[in-house]
Amino acid sequence: MTVWGFPRSxxxxxxxxxxxxxxxxxxxxxxxxxxxxxxxTPAASPTAPEQQPEATETEPSxxxxxxxxxxxxHLSCEEPFADTTISFRPEFWSKTDFCQHSVPLSEFQAxxxxxDGIQPIDNPTFVGQEAxxxxxxxxxxxxxxxxxxxxxxxxxxxxxxxxxxxxxxxxQPIAVTYCPLCNAAIVFDRQVDGQVLxxxxxxxxxxxxxxxxxxxxxxxxxxxxGEAVVGDFTGxxxxxxSSRTIAWEDFKERYPEGEVLSRDSGIDRYRDLYGQNPYPxxxxxxxxxxxxxxxxxxEAMERVVAVELEEQPVAYPFxxxxxxxxxxDEVADTAIVVFWxxxxxxxxxxxxxxxxxxxxxxxxxxxxxxxxxxTFEALDEEGIYTDQETGSRWNIFGEAIDGPLEGTKLEQVVxxxxxxxxWSAFKSGTEVRPAETS
Length: 438
Description:
The protein has 8 helices and 31 strands. By secondary structure, it is of the alpha+beta class. The protein is globular and about 65 Å long.
């Protein structure tokens, strides 16, 4: 028996989080079934890894040794799974060299969907802000990315159902990624040694985090760290690119000419689902992460903004930032400032983002200007800060909007907002600031 084309045993064995990860597919296929009046079958992605074809009577017969030789031709060893328990299906992966891996293969857990069952957007189109206003709420979260004065917004309402957008802005190929189970929104340069990679979803998780793959080599990449952990690219690190998760209204104010990712993703059955959250209550403190250890210094689902400079990882809890609004700090001998402001809704709270709670947003910058280290404090006006040294006024985008330094821009520090359990699972040596809590 199968359910939406997948073995019933796969559905039965899913844990709660696995089922959550499967919900975007179930929701989309249910809608399609209702519209068509019949059973829906997921369409296979044309670029997804395919299962090895079964032999038919019309095909030339092959000896078992010939078949084994063909199926193993991409491997650099004879028995990559010897003495290892795996939960994924290796037959999907016709090019992946499982002999090369930097982490145990047993750490990968099937998340529910098959490869590219959660389909990335490969040919994104963009629309103007008026078209975005037709469906985006003012406080809905978007990933804002800017390159050479060209800005684009990628709504989490869309990424909830796709997780990856392969894009190019100007001359910069990028992968915009979002793992709902970890609340990890990260933008990568998808060039490696001059080669532009296209990314998809493996359907697997590690420490509850999305495991991506590139279609060129079928190597597996850990989304939260950007590192290839299986296959030919093992040990290769993608470059992180600075981005921010901000409210749609803030994006429009800062980038009046900026465009937004269109709902016309090429997958029609998803269009009416954008804005619905298939993971309601996921950011509740009562939810237990799947397949990840929990560092009890903070609640597992506490939002943190994470920074790593010179291999020194630091995390700042939203619960403290909401009270302080500004943290002046130093990481790896670099003076930084962390800004926080309210007005951004969670994508993972209510079943509809419009009804979700305000969780705020952050931005991290170097606070040295012309060899002078500035000390910031928050003003009563929301989203406005001042420095003690010059009295200039600054916004959440690190821009001086008034005072002696008007027109100056702070240098952004690469940072990302995650659930605490996810960041600490990969960065166990993280220091929690301003103060560790238990």
